[in-house]
Amino acid sequence: MRFFIRALLIPAALVLGARLAAQEAPAPTGPSDAEVLKLYDGLRVADVVDGMDIVGLRGVGLVDTRFQALWKDLDRFDHQFRGIALTVRYVPQNRVVANPIPAEQYAKWESDWYNQVSPEPFLPLIKPGHVIVIDGSGNGDVGTIGSFNALEWMSRGARGILTTGNIRDTDEVIKERIPVYYDPLQRGRGIRPGRNMVESVNKPVVIGGALVRPGDVVVADGDGVVVVPREYAAPVAQAARAILVKDKAGRKALYERLGRPVDKTVID
């Protein structure tokens, strides 16, 4: 992501963010975001999926197994996240674009596209605990996400990114240790200008066959990604926590019997 874009993206995002204020996620009933984040702290995808089964949501919220972590840290588990969905949808552009664009006009054309056609109006909406969920289905070989804007989102409190693909600068994103879950077959390389445009913010999207609504809970780890409908967040978390506690106790006892040093996965 080009560095000069920063000055262009943020003002446009602020303007559009105000215009799209109605698209901010409605205040959820039940536990607050902070309470939900506490409920899901440390829970694994496997625990949550089992919790979904217990409350009757079998097969709900399971993102296709093609979606995987861009990187993993099996010591610190920093690739994992549990967060609240902030959803964004980018769609393929349908405008006539001159090709080639004269060199002396290119910079203005590029900045105008970033500001007016494919900006990031969700920037002012990012709060601590958010997961940025981007549906870029059909966008083609375009890097909507890059090492600069992803880091900007994290600086505002985002916990990670779930996307259909459309990510570039992946070496730098890995170096920055930004948790990203994506479909590797849909990763992209080109810039947004001339390729896509923002369609909506905080509207329902579909990622890997799973419905994701603003405010839903997104849990991601080495097993993949699961999305919990917000209205069931508390009972699913309670059931998942009981499963995790029992699993830790059982595995800790087995570790001890085998003379294996305990690790963070079996310690409460």
CATH class: Alpha Beta
Mean pLDDT: 92
What portion of residues is helical?
25-40%
- Please trace the helix and strand order, writing H or E for each element: HHHEEHEHEHEEEEEEH
CATH superfamily: Ribonuclease E inhibitor RraA/RraA-like
Termini separation: 40 Å
Shape: elongated
The helix tally amounts to: 7
Low-confidence stretches: 1-15, 17-22
- Rounded to an integer in angstroms, the radius of gyration calculated over CA atoms is 20 Å
Q: What is the β-strand count?
A: 10
Major sheet summary line = 8 strands, mixed
* Strand percent estimate: 15-25%
Structural features, described:
With 268 residues, the protein is an alpha/beta fold. The chain has one domain (3-266): Glucose Oxidase, domain 1, CATH 3.50.30.40. The chain is 32% helix and 18% strand. Strands 1, 2, 3, 4, 5, 6, 9 and 10 form an 8-stranded mixed sheet that branches. Strands 7-8 form a two-stranded antiparallel sheet. The model is unreliable at 1-15 and 17-22 (pLDDT under 50).
Compile the SSE list and pairings.
Blueprint: H1 6-19, H2 33-40, H3 45-54, E1 68-69, E2 81-92, H4 103-116, E3 130-135, H5 147-155, E4 160-163, H6 170-175, E5 180-182, E6 196-201, E7 205-207, E8 210-212, E9 217-221, E10 224-228, H7 233-258
Parallel strand pairs: 2-3, 3-4, 4-5
Antiparallel strand pairs: 1-5, 2-6, 2-9, 7-8, 9-10
Helix pairs in contact: 1-4, 3-7
